[in-house]
Design brief:
Bound molecules: nicotinamide-adenine-dinucleotide
Helix content: 40-55%
Largest sheet: 8 strands, mixed
CATH topology of the largest domain: Rossmann fold
CATH architecture of the largest domain: 3-Layer(aba) Sandwich
Number of strands: 15
Strand content: 15-25%
């Protein structure tokens, strides 16, 4: 008889587990979905009107399903739901290791391992364990060996179902994915999970591979995306010194259908919890198989990104530093702190590195963001020399320089004619996302520096 998944549980109620399970519950009212997490505060927030994750459309999806076939529970309460589940997703964080072998590069699998132990302790009958977290290739071996310690009579099958959603567009990406990937060894398990996605995803978009290909594909997909950002960012520096315009170059290059136009926006650099972590994981895996050249190739994508952030901070400092290079007494308005628009996530946001570099040189910062809380800003930057502004206007007051670090749409339409008077005379606007209306900024008598376009003097 074909396997049918009627009850599912998901361990990890983060940026991936919460939205992914909410969409599954929304699309499959007959499937009972439980999301559990160690973090009681996060679970309380998922059960409130103030969700812990900001994503356009998420609140609506949650409000349709929560209390019907979607619940968020703490770890202790979750054990019974794991016991009853036909399938358990593991959607916990897999950060870069900070200590031990592979520190600074390898993925830290301790949270995944503790989920595997929890599942081994509580599962009953036959349970499909689904890796939703991004894992190093062959991590399923480690999960399998932990599950092998379960009580006699309890059996498992493992699938890899990595998530490709992007923060800021998570709900759209989940509702209309380019592809859903299911890697596994047993066709009946793959078919059972595919049957869930088939409720709203066309069959041709559900790809099935072996376990190792699925695990590796997720790392490679992120590596390729990050590589495009570093590629265009490397060209942005070349544009600035040659007088070419990176937007024009990107448009021409992207018009080649073999290359395509997406992910060719020059910027202050990529951020987010995944790109760097997944690149480092790929680098570590390559090194551990002795593939030094492969590791060095991908390392350069990371290095270029770090360089772009430093380069951007130094461009902000250059016109306002004193003879000794100090920014003491200089106030810089930071517009945007999230790693991209439409999210409140600040993990690995380029704003952290840019701001820290400016603070280290003595600058005072006035930081504005539409969704990031003052606590998040302060936990990354500390309080010394950091003011969190409630509006862009407040951040700009008395600023010697301005840096746009997140591409929030509202920044693109700021009224520079009205705002120019708030800035110190001679203040330069540095557009780290190339979203400002260059002509409007210039008409307001301001100097704009865009990434990959060099200096644009006042009209
Ligand atoms: N954030 C993204 O855009 C994104 C996209 C695709 C894939 N991923 C991958 O998905 C995974 C999860 O990412 P995230 O951004 O949702 O992370 P997150 O940090 O937002 O959420 C992880 C959650 O897991 C919980 N947790 C950790 N160990 C636990 C345990 N043993 N039992 C119960 N709960 C536990 C944490 O408390 C946390 O709430 C990672 O592997 C990540 O690489 C993330």
């Amino acid at each position: 008889m074909a396997l049918s998944l009627r009850k599912i549980a998901c361990i990890g109620a983060g940026y991936v587990g919460g939205p992914t399970m909410a969409v599954i519950a929304d699309r499959c009212p007959d499937i009972d979905v439980t999301v559990l997490d160690l973090n009681a505060e996060r679970i309380a927030a998922w059960n409130s009107e103030d969700l812990p994750v900001y994503e356009p459309g998420l609140a609506e999806v949650v409000s349709r399903a929560r209390g019907r076939n979607l619940r968020f529970v703490g770890q202790a309460e979750g054990a019974a739901y794991v016991a009853a589940a036909d399938a358990v997703f593991i959607s916990v964080n897999t950060p870069t290791k900070t200590e031990g072998e592979g520190a600074g590069k390898a993925s830290d699998l301790r949270y995944v391992e503790s989920c595997a132990r929890f599942i081994a302790a509580h599962a009953t009958g036959h349970t499909i364990v689904i890796e939703k977290s991004t894992m190093p290739v062959r991590a399923a071996d480690c999960v399998k060996s932990i599950l092998a310690t379960a009580r006699p009579g309890v059996t498992f099958d493992i699938l890899s179902n990595p998530e490709f959603l992007a923060e800021g567009t998570a709900i759209r990406d989940l509702e209309q994915p380019d592809r859903v990937l299911i890697g596994g060894e047993r066709p009946e398990s793959i078919a059972a999970l595919a049957e869930i996605y088939r409720r709203w995803v066309p069959a041709e978009r559900i790809l099935s591979t072996g376990l190792w290909s699925a695990e590796l594909s997720k790392l490679v997909a992120n590596a390729f995306l990050a590589q495009r950002v570093s590629s265009i960012n490397s060209i942005s520096a070349l544009c600035e010194v040659t007088g070419a315009d990176v937007e024009e170059v990107a448009a021409v290059v992207g018009a080649d259908s073999r290359i395509g136009p997406k992910f060719l926006r020059a910027s202050v650099g990529f951020g987010g919890s995944c790109f760097q972590k997944d690149l480092l994981s790929l680098i570590y895996i390559s090194e551990s198989y002795g593939l030094t050249e492969v590791a060095a190739y991908w390392q350069q994508v990371v290095d270029l990104n770090q360089w772009q952030k430093r380069r951007f901070a130094d461009l902000i400092a250059a016109p306002i530093a004193d003879g000794a290079g100090s920014l003491r007494g200089r106030r810089i308005a930071i517009l945007g702190f999230a790693f991209k628009k439409d999210t409140n996530d600040v993990r690995e946001t380029p704003a952290i590195d840019v701001c820290r570099r400016l603070l280290a040189r003595g600058a005072t910062l006035a930081v504005h963001d539409y969704r990031v809380t003052p606590e998040s800003v302060r936990s990354e930057l500390g309080a010394l020399g950091v003011e969190v502004a409630a509006t862009p206007e407040a951040a700009l007051a008395g600023a010697d320089g301005v840096a746009v670090l997140t591409e929030w749409s509202a920044y693109a339409t700021l009224d520079w004619a009205r705002l120019a008077g708030r800035l110190k005379v001679g203040a330069v606007i540095h557009d780290g996302r190339n979203i400002l209306d260059a002509a409007a900024v210039r008409r307001a008598g301001l100097t704009l520096r865009s990434i990959g376009r060099g200096a644009q003097p006042n009209a």
